[in-house]
Amino acid sequence: xxxxxVHRGDEVSFQLMQTFxxxxxxxxxxxxxxxxxxVLSIGGDGTMLHAFHQYKxxxxxxxxxxxxxxxLGFFADWKPDExxxxxxxxxxxxxxxxLRVVKYPLxxxxxxxxxxxxxxxALNEFTLKGVDVTLMAELHINDEPFETFRGDGICIxxxxxxxxYNKSLGGAxxxxxxxxxxxxxxxxxxxxxxxxxxxxxxLPKHHHCDIYPRSHQTxxxxxxxxxxxxxxxxxxxxxVAAGKKVKFARFRPFPFWSRVREAFIGYEPIQERKP
Length: 275
Fold this sequence. Notes:
Blueprint: E1 2-7, H1 11-24, E2 30-31, E3 38-43, H2 45-54, E4 63-68, H3 83-96, E5 101-113, E6 116-122, E7 125-130, E8 135-141, E9 144-157, H4 165-168, E10 180-188, E11 201-204, E12 208-213, E13 219-223, E14 226-230, E15 235-249, H5 256-264
Parallel strand pairs: 1-2, 1-3, 3-4, 4-15
Antiparallel strand pairs: 5-6, 5-15, 7-9, 7-13, 8-9, 8-12, 9-10, 10-11, 12-15, 13-14
Helix pairs in contact: 1-3
Main location: cytoplasm
Organism: Paenibacillus vulneris
Keywords: ATP-binding, Cytoplasm, Kinase, NAD, NADP, Nucleotide-binding, Transferase
């Protein structure tokens, strides 16, 4: 098994990386930055996003796994004091040639300008915001006009990304086994000219949403952690990425709803009171 480590850059994450190298090197795991089989992210969810975009052209052959050293690591299955256990399980998986993975859908973005079409992928979400003034745009769904938007912006998220910015906008948490994208408004303005649905929308695979911003409007785009400012956009098409998914290595079970509970609720059962 070939692996690489992407870490957050702090001392704790760096030391964990060094420990992991030391644990697996005698057992035949190969450190390969170019074409790894497994990418270990040590840090928070932002570190995992960096790892994803670093290797987004190799999604067919790479699986990701995370050690959480930040405040909230939704993508990370492992804690810092479990690095030795993770190393043992990766060694065993390599020995048996048995790497178990789960696959999560991604959102594909097609940005049309006068120069052509740019295609991008996002693991969490894509957002579109106005810079100097509120965002004004027409939304079409499956090539049919749907609504005229004016407001701070629009967020389009994946199921794994539904627990991120989308959740703070009042969007639903969507299980990543569902091939869908979610459209959530960011502070929309509703009057007799600009009318929006006012609630998040789920689109299944094979459906798409086209956003047509006002011509030459300066727009702030974000693809996960990647931010860019543009004024040349004619339209943006969003859809479930066809034939492309991100893989996460599962060396032990970690159900999605358990992950949600631990991240947001910290549930503890109520003990029955004795008389």
